[in-house]
Amino acid sequence: MYSGNRSGGHGYWDGGGAAGAEGPAPAGTLSPAPLFSPGTYERLALLLGSIGLLGVGNNLLVLVLYYKFQRLRTPTHLLLVNISLSDLLVSLFGVTFTFVSCLRNGWVWDTVGCVWDGFSGSLFASLCGRSSDNSSDQDFKI
């Protein structure tokens, strides 16, 4: 599996061989050379951390308010709760792997972590998209 930016001369294959004529990868690393400077990784980690915290906090607030107030339990609000729940899952599972990788200046997970990151982000984001599609269809039927 290819890991890195080939155009910048940092590309290596996981098996230890080079992607081109760059030479062998250092032992024990999946991405030997960072794509960005350490300062850029810090800014990305700050941005992803704030997006994750705001996403978790706001979506938990929506779920708590829906549970606490009986008058909010309508079919339309249930669709919004469904969107909020899937967005909460994206915030928890979709941002975490990338946030930790930004803190460590490169992707630190193995192939299974990469597959899980892509799968969970796609699954929960598509659930969020399907919920919003259903809610827009509901508006037109009324």
TrEMBL record:
Descriptive protein name: Opsin 3
InterPro entries tied to this protein: GPCR_opsins, GPCR_Rhodpsn, GPCR_Rhodpsn_7TM
Keywords from the named record: G-protein coupled receptor, Membrane, Receptor, Transducer, Transmembrane, Transmembrane helix
PROSITE patterns: G_PROTEIN_RECEP_F1_2 (PS50262)
GO MF term set: G protein-coupled receptor activity
Keyword Secreted attributed: no
Domain of life, per lineage: Eukaryota
Chief subcellular location: membrane
Localisation per UniProt entry: Membrane
Organism: Homo sapiens
Membrane topology field: Multi-pass membrane protein
Positions of transmembrane segments: 44-67, 79-100
Gene3D superfamilies listed in its UniProt record: Rhodopsin 7-helix transmembrane proteins
One protein family per Pfam: 7tm_1
Claim: Transmembrane is one of the keywords in the record: yes
Occurrences of domain G-protein coupled receptors family 1 profile (ranges): 58-114
